[in-house]
Every structure is written in C-alpha cells, then in structure tokens.
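2024-03-11 09:14:02 DEBUG pipeline.ingest accepted 1 chain
2024-03-11 09:14:02 DEBUG pipeline.ingest length=471
2024-03-11 09:14:03 DEBUG pipeline.predict start
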Amino acid sequence: MPQDLGRHLVPILDFRDEATATGWQEIQLLIGTCGLGGILLRGGKEADWLAIRRTVDQLPSPPLLMADLEQGAASQLPEHAWLPSAAAVGATGDPEFAWRMGQLIGRQAKALGLDLILAPVADLCLCLENPIMGPRCFGSRADRVADMVGAFVKGCGREGVGTVVKHFPGHGRAGDDSHTILPMIQLEKDVWRRTDLLPFAAAIKAGTRGVMIGHLWISGLDPGETRPASLSQPVMKQLLREELGFSGLIITDSLDMVPVSPGDVRIAEKMINAGADLVLGVKLDEPSGSAPKWIGLPEIEVQAHAPVATLEDSVHVLAQTIARSSLGWFGDRQPRWRIGESVQAVLVCADGTRQAWAEEFIRAVQECSPGVCVTEGLLEQAVVMESEELIIVIGRASGRIEEERAHSVFGTLQAERRKALVVLLGVPKLLPAATVLPVLVGGDAISETQRAAVDILWGKLIPSGNPDLVC
C-alpha cells in the first residue's frame, strides 16, 4: 500500500474480537511499511490500551489513538462506571454539566493514552423513530444543543484531549440507521444553516480538533448527486473547509457500515480525494513481511491500580448529580395521585432474552415500599395485572418494543382509567405512544438515573429536568 494512502487510514483494533492478536500484528506491519493515520480502539481492558500507547510511542510519528467514549470509559471498557447520556445532560438545561462531563471524559481519555475521543454528538434529536440517535443527542433545540456541545468540547480540551464532533452535516432528522441504509434527508440549505449547523459551528468555535462526516445525504447541501456526505466534495471541501473555515481534521464515519461498501480501500481513496483527512474502519489486506524490531506485540497484563480507576468516584458523583437534575415529567401530564402512598405494582419491561437491567430501580422501590409487587416481563402484562395503581418501567435494555404494541397497551390502560404511569429511560421513540399516560422521562438507564427516578416517584426529589424532545 502506498505510504501517502496509509497515513489517511484508521483501522479498528477491537479487543472483543478473538482475532485481536492477528489484527494487531497486521497493524504493526502496516505502520512499519506505509504508516497509519490512527488506530481506533474498541473493547478490552485498560492495560490493553496502555500497552498500545507504549508501543506506538516508540515511533517517530505515532498514529493517533482514538476511541468512542460518548458516555466515558465505560462505553468501551466494561469494568468502569457509566457516565450519563447526552440526552440526560441536555435535559438539565445547564451547559456547566456538559463542560464537567467533557472534562471528566477528557481525564479518562488522557489516562488511557488517547489522543482523540469520537464525541460529542452534535446532531439534533428531531426524529424519535431513529434507532441509533435518541439518547446520544443533547436535545432538539439547536441553540440549546449548541451550548451543550460547545461546553463539552471546551471541557475536554481543558485536559489536552481532542474531540471529534459528529455526525456532520447532521443525522438528527433521519429516520434510518446509517449502519444499514443511506439516510436521505430533504432539507434546504438556509434551513440547515439556522438549525442543524449551529451545534457544529459551536464546536468549531470552541476548538474541536476534528469533525466526523456521516454517511448520509442532505438534499440542499449536495443537490447535484445523491451520495453520502463522506463522499461529497461540496460538503467536505466547499462547505466545511471553505465556507465554515474549519482547519482541523475531517474524519469519516466508519467504513464497517453498509451504505459505503464496508471496509473497501477503494472507497477510502474516493473519500480522501473528496476532502477527508482520515478514514475510519477500513479493512486492509494482510501485509507481507515481518514486524520491525521496534514494534513488539504488547503484553496484556491486568494492572492492580489502573489510572482510570482513580476517577471512578468522580464518575459516580457527576452521574448522580446529573441524574437528579435531568429527570422530568413530559408536558403537563403529571400523576394526580400520591404515587408512593398508593402504588401497588411495578412492571419492569423485559423480553426475557436479556439480563436483568433495572436492579437499582427495583432495589430502591423495595427500600421505599417493601410490600410493592415488582414483576419483570413483557409490556402486555400491564393490561392483565390486577392492580389499579401501576408503574411501567421501560429502558433500552427492555428489548424491542414496537410503537404499535405500546400504543395498544397504553391506550387500554387509559380507557380503563387505571392509575398507571410510565417511566421511560433512554427510549424516546416510545414517547408519542406513552403520552396518553403520565410519563417520567430520563435520558438513560444507568443506576444513578434509576434511583433518582424512584426518589421522584416516592416524593423524595422534586423533578427539575426538561426533556428536550419534539413529540
């Protein structure tokens, strides 16, 4: 592979894949023969990442190490605690929380040896049906999201770690998943400038080091041809570089996605010619030769006192603070009865194929009212449960719940005049169906959010969040 091509490529090193060792050996050879622009790390343990950092630091021009840390280190490393979602931060209405989360994630990233984090998401949440955005977005109002994005970028930059804001020119209006199909968005350029652009402009002004280009098409920005923005010279060179004056890294979304012919090096070349500096997720042919002597396969050892572990207390404190400031009732539909005194049953929705996900919610309920019956099961059980006062809890781990099913169940409970309410934790797509009942909305289902939700339901906490969602 030519060296001038290699320095634009960012392969994925996924420690969740059994072939990781082989993948690392191939990456070593590529670094030695043609260079690489970066390495995207996924999964594994902290020690894995630090070993990679130590290894590439031996190079005269090390590739950039990056990872997707939208909710902190736990986004990739399961031994760590989760930070809140962007939706939860946005619901607080306070950019200071976005700054604090950006700074803390920056501290984690620095401790992990990263140069860049693929965050924050700057898309507006304007299509609740979108299966991949939702909780990853700060909200739907462009000005409010812009404040959050700018604050996050500044907070992370305070720690010397670069951000890559995504998914330019804006994925939030798409109803489709760009991992499986090319989203096609009909939107005039002047409307885009007044709305979707604002968070990206705020990130650029705040000093983001990179902008990720999405695999999506917006009609008013590239009217001449229906193609992904990641292949569009009008979007990358003319709009982002010339009109917006962005001088940082232009990075494509990953090539392990269907709309752009997964992993194809020829597609990567077209993206580079269209204006991309780095292309994520390209699948490379196995190079020939042997690894240079200065590159050794890292020894993966578990460290007793890993650097990121020292930040866990800070993660829990910030997560709890944001959770208690982010939950809120949607609209004016609040329960007209004292929940903690009258509730008889709680249904935690689960399809039976996944592990229990609401342990903290259940634990908190039983602490408040030991006699309350807690059931884990399908949403339809709510209709047959012999309880006039019922709490229905739904999270992203509840399994796939179609909108039609939700409309049917919630509509039946309303028609029967049952005292039922819904707790939606990180599932905005079900909000239109749930609004026939009182709905407590949370941006995610991390343990701190679950406990804060119970505190609100049992009158221990006054809800102050304002879910920024269009319904």
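2024-03-11 09:14:41 DEBUG pipeline.report Confidence is low (pLDDT under 50) at residues 287-305.
2024-03-11 09:14:41 DEBUG pipeline.predict end
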